[in-house]
Amino acid sequence: xxxxxxxxxxxxxxxxxxxxxxxxxxxxxxxxxxxxxxxxxxxxxxxxxxxxxxxxxxxxxxxxxxxxxxxxxxxxxxxxxxxxxxxxxxxxxxxxxxxxxxxxxxxxxxxxxxxxxxxxxxxxxxxxxxxxxxxx
Length: 136
Description:
5 helices; Nuclear Transport Factor 2, Chain: A; disordered N terminus; 5 strands; single chain; alpha+beta; five-stranded antiparallel β-sheet
């Protein structure tokens, strides 16, 4: 998944949020953190059906196709470690990144709320993040 945060300027961010009518920055950030917490809690409890419910539709589809198994089973086989405490959350319109102690999640806002589009992501020097779970 190619997501570059460094090249985004403040004026572009303001324009995206203004056009999107997506609530206050604090409200969106809280919603993203809540979704990340649900994802992490479900992952830690081995509640893989609940993990899949928080994943974006394209991410579920990609995961099932690449694993050849239902989402819950495929997530369990990934053996993602717990991400730990939230260190930072960045929200840009309908896209977000939550940096945890040992993971990074990327999220998108859907009509049903925020969904995780990529998880198990590690930053690469001068390259896009490498994510173990991601949408197509």
